[in-house]
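User: structure tokens for this one?
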Amino acid sequence: MKTEKKEETLKNLLPFDARESSQQSLLLFDNVQFIYELALAQLELQALGVKFEVTNSLRKFDLIKANDIENLRRRTAYFKLIKGKYSDYFHIVKKNRTHSVNQYLTHWIYPYKGKFHPQMIRALLNIIEIAPGETVLDPFIGSGTTALEAQLLGINCIGVDVSPLCVLQSKVKTESLTVIDKIITLKEKSLYHIEPSLFSNEKGLVRFIEEIPESKVRNFYQMARLVALSDVARRKREFKKSFLRNLDLMIASVTDLYKVKEELNLTLGKVDIKIGDSRSLPLPDVSVDGIITSPPYSIALDYVSNDAHALKDLGFDLSKLRERFIGVRGKGKERIELYNKDILRVYREMHRVLKGDRFAVIIIGNATYQKDEIKTVEFTIEHMERFGFTMVKNIDKIIFGLYNIMQKENILIFKKTK
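Assistant:
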């Protein structure tokens, strides 16, 4: 059974006749299709100090008042034209080496189930009013979407994950642009070592990567190798061809990130990605300005088994890793009880580290386990409010996409009030 895709081709985002946007209007991106996106677009405008009216087309908004048009152009996620001029995000999403509108710049690197929609994360960073230089936390950093989108907006990001694979890919996506020249310099040498031979001094690719002295460069080549291994395991592709292809694409995508920074004169946010336990965050009390995260759907998806080939290749013992992951321990009723207990500890930690009167966003859906629906959304709302949060928004989100395991989620926006 084919999974319906929301993803569209980039042709819908490429330049068009700007006359379709008047000098007093805001025009949505063509790929904005769903009710939740329209809701987020309006919340984003409100947070950015814009007064507007939605026209009958639902695609063009009439601008009534804006406190800072230039700031709106630089930050907005859902509008490609503001008063006849393209937004920064319009230029950013054009830097795309894939066929998916959601996988621009380095977002595409490594196939990861349950990825965030980057456009949604950019909008949420605006909606919860995190300013450049402030810090957002994602205690389940996953594939690094929050980190990259925060970085582009000049927002600092702390990302925590128990999975070494998640930490690696998040670091590669956000740190490689600082060493892109060194990465390119080593490209030919890496190709020389793909197949061990007498002429390569018996060095294989693994050993070559291990001996790269700089960690950011080493991480990049390790990730390129893991992407190729994923192609072998999941798509039955030949390793050498996959490595060559993905290495070129990764270098091009990191170069695109560097170029868009220069072209748009972006001041990138600082990114700090670390292996850690979200049940006991390595952070001081009241130290972050906002939180955006999606707890793992481990009840429905075994993250350890799903990425077993990569984790084994990295040298990790899967049975030991399993004991550290939330939601994959135990069976039957015990598994649900352990998951709930762990998530409550995470929510308490989120409350501890978040500053007062700031916002935490949790994107979560009700999972199904052994044919029973687990009321995760209701559970989250009840306990977040018990810990001292007040829910200010609950937005239904329909999901499409090859790597999504849920059909519906809720975007829950809480404010720390106690």
